[in-house]
Amino acid sequence: MVSILWLPIVSTSYILFIQSAKNKMCSILVTGANRGIGLGLVKHLLTNQSFKVDNVFATCRDKGKAKELMQLESNSQLHILEADLIDHGSFFNLASQVSNIVKDNGLNVLINNAGISSKFTRIGLVKSEDLLNHFKINTIGPIMLTQALLPLMKLASEKNQSSTGVNKAVIVNMSSILGSITLNDQGGFYPYRTSKAAINVATKSLSVDLKNNGILTVSIHPGWVKTTMGGPNAPIEVEQSVNGICTFLKNINKSHNGGFYDFEGKLLPW
Question: How far apart are CA 37 and CA 60, in angstroms?
Answer without folding.
Answer: 13
